[in-house]
Amino acid sequence: MTDGNNPPTLFVIGAHLDDAVLSCGGTLSSLGRAGWRLIVATVFTEAAPVDEPWELDRFNLAGGDSLLSGLAKRRAEDREAGRRLGYLPIHLGFTDASFRAPYRRSERGIAAFADRAEAAGDVLAPLIAARLESTAAAARPDLVFAPMSIGDHVDHLVVNSASRTAFSGSRPQALWYEDLPYGWSTTPEVAMTVAPQYFDEVDLERKLAAIAAFESQLDYLDETGNWRDRMTHHARSIAASRLAERMWSPAAVP
């Protein structure tokens, strides 16, 4: 853990390459400016070979003319977002649900939004939990952020389950963040918000700049181009007169 010579460390877990920045980028900025070391570990950063060109859209590989170039572009975007926000990106290399059975069913990838019972039996969950434990052990974090899995995307559900397994003890402390943009339209099924994380206007601008680094994803985020306004409105809606991101402590997780 942290000693007098080292800064405290935040270890953030994301299912996909933009999840951490979208969901808790303001908090990352605030803690980073306060001297924390920031690490963002993204679980699903790979795809499987595709048979048809349209399958590239399953991984939102906008701007990539091949699977390899699309994946490289997305990982490069994460590195640029990390540079803008001050975090170290780690890519764990698991295959996105849009390319995995049984979720690889439809051209639009609707099956990726699975029920919790199906996701609970995903064979990757224990493998991801073990990888998170070993990665976190090397990072020695003081605090962990993991997805609440709002929106029921199977990858978020699996990462939530794996994170609970990996960080079931009291140390390091884990907080569970509201998955955005799903939280824009889905009411969280938690009775009480116990740990809103506050930040200021500088942090909001840095978060928006980091989101903008994910150029291939912006049309998917909001096809109207109003993602900045929606992100700002959401941050202002959580707490009266303050910018915030919604999180929960372990006691509030169902």
Give structural notes.
This protein has 254 residues and is α/β, with parallel strands linked by helices. The protein is built from eight helices and eight strands. The protein has a single domain, classed as LmbE-like (Rossmann fold). The strands form two sheets. It has a six-stranded mixed β-sheet with strand order 3-2-1-4-5-8, sandwiched between helices. Strands 6-7 form a two-stranded antiparallel sheet. α2 runs antiparallel to α6.
Helices and strands in order:
Layout (H helix, E strand, L loop, with lengths): L8 E6 L4 H15 L3 E10 L20 H19 L1 E9 L20 H5 L3 H16 L3 E5 L6 H13 L6 E5 L19 E3 L1 H12 L5 H4 L5 H11 L5 E3 L1 E2 L6
Parallel strand pairs: 1-2, 1-4, 2-3, 4-5
Antiparallel strand pairs: 5-8, 6-7
Helix pairs in contact: 1-6, 2-6, 4-5
Determine the mean pLDDT.
86
Give a short account of the largest sheet: 6 strands, mixed
Tell me the name of the CATH homologous superfamily: LmbE-like
Structural class of the secondary structure composition?
alpha/beta
Main β-sheet, spatial strand arrangement: 3-2-1-4-5-8
What's the domain count? 1
CATH class: Alpha Beta
What is the helix tally? 8
Number of strands: 8
Separation, N- and C-terminal Cα atoms: 28 Å
